[in-house]
């Protein structure tokens, strides 16, 4: 994974690292991601984040690489396993003093997605992920809402891509 300079206000490092890890694994495992999807990737701006221009340049290189490679192959079991590993490995920050999402509800959704990917349960559709509403925790531990929302947007796009290819 490329190293980017850290600046006072840049892209959220956790989001960038997760996105690039997913892109690299998808391309390595057979191309379950498209150049158009890479072109739509967006990150939150955070204090002590990655230099935006460096990250944007890296994403453009991936986008050009995929466009020059031709049409993507339909995802197979390897891509599904890669997506499952990505979901399984996600860790969300706590919400701190702000309200956050109930961790049990978020984890339950991700468990359902994993069960669907492993054929251990019914598949979860992209619209179920993007339309999910979680109870907010005001006192006690909650997941950072922006992190969860950003991850679920990317997960819904990946699930939609699987559906388009008949999985």
UniProtKB/TrEMBL annotation:
It comes from the Bacteria. InterPro entries: DivIVA_domain. This is Antigen 84. It comes from Actinomadura craniellae.
């Amino acid at each position: 994974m490329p190293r980017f300079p850290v600046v006072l206000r840049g892209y959220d490092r956790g989001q960038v690292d997760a996105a690039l890890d997913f892109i690299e694994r998808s391309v390595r495992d057979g191309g379950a991601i498209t150049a158009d999807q890479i072109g739509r990737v967006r990150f939150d701006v955070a204090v002590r984040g990655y230099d935006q221009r460096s990250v944007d340049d890296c994403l453009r290189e991936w986008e050009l690489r995929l466009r020059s490679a031709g049409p993507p192959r339909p995802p197979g079991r390897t891509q599904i396993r890669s997506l499952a590993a990505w979901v399984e490995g996600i860790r969300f920050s706590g919400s701190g003093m702000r309200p956050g999402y109930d961790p049990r509800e978020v984890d339950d959704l991700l468990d359902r997605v994993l069960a669907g990917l492993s054929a251990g349960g019914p598949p979860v559709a992209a619209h179920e992920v993007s339309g999910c509403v979680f109870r907010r925790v005001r006192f006690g531990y909650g997941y950072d809402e922006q992190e969860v929302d950003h991850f679920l947007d990317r997960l819904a796009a990946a699930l939609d891509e699987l559906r388009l290819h008949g999985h």
